[in-house]
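To the team - manganese (II) ion complex, inputs and output below.
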Amino acid sequence: MSDHVIAVLPGDGTGKEVAVEAQRILDTIQEHTNHGFEQTVIPCGGQHYLATGEEWGEGSFEFCRDDADAIFMGAIGYPGAWLPNGDLAGGSVILGMRSGLDLYANVRPIRLYEGVPHKVHGRFTNIWDPDMVNMVILRENTEGLYHSLLHRSAQRAKGLEGYEPPEMEFPGLHGEVAYDPRPISAHGSERLIKMGFDICNTRSGAPVDGVSRVSCIDKSNVTRGCQLFRRTFDTVAGSYSNIEKDYGYIDAFTQWLTRTPEFYDVVVTSNMFGDIATDLASVLQGGMGMAASGNIGDDHAFFEPVHGSAPKHAGQNKVNPIASINSVQMMLDWLARRSNDDDLLEVSKILDQSVAEHLKDGSSLTYDLGGTASCTDVGTSIASRLATHLKER
Ligand code: IPM
Ligand code: MN
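Output:
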């Protein structure tokens, strides 16, 4: 019997709907195995802020830090919900945890399942075999262009004073100037890149040739931060002689990513580049409804679908819950590896198998994948397939 305390942060809009399906998966596992999940739901987000004046209740950050074994988040963002200082209302939750819990790696797997149409040209047809898209992009998650906002959000989550970058001079600029510093540290880069190489060692290489490969994606022809990132990459790579090193500039990478996704195995990159590249990459895996993620540090982790709160779809029970269900799969994998729990690791693999079978079957798909099923239909169907497999063990 292993019991895990899970903080569930549904957030805004469709985040609330997909969180229900994430919880259904945890309940199903609890029902059919010895693994227990004590789920604590914490209301939060922009809408919550408009209603209560708080992004989340007092003590929520501390609960996530001190009491939860892992955290699940739906999505943050509500139309018109901004803080008086201009920051996103709900930012304390998502950005505050990324920075405040030191979750330095945003791990985003990009995999095209059999039965899922990629979205490169918006038609429900495939030009690739599913096994041609199978990579993981690691986005640095605590510094870069987000640094000031992250730090400010974490301070707020801890009930401390905000943070503004120091005054700077910009020669040649006149009138009002707004700027976001983009600090990149050797330490922050090193731990992210190292995790990328370690993840690479658990995989079976790039689809095109089976070669284990880590690609360093930066703009080191232009920025000093990226030069430091690339130098750090070379240093870390020295300890992984079995893994091929690859380099690309972010602009050219977007082209290669869409033309030859089969070349990529693991990609490491800085914060904003990773934010942009993973939305683009989601197109290769069937869209944002399929994109899962984990915000991972040495001591904490939170898992969330990459998509936002999608206000225009909210309240209609129509969005795809698979990004959330796969985020739960990542959570189980992370919990299992941390506690050397082979049985939980097996359960996480059975969940992945259940999702893969569901998609291959293709009879219950949401609108984004060409179907007419509801969010609840897909969630309950995957949960019942999972229950069947768990009972068969
Ligand atoms: C993401 C989102 C967030 C980000 C927003 C909601 C602040 O786009 O998780 O990718 O920019 O990181
Ligand atoms: Mn994003």
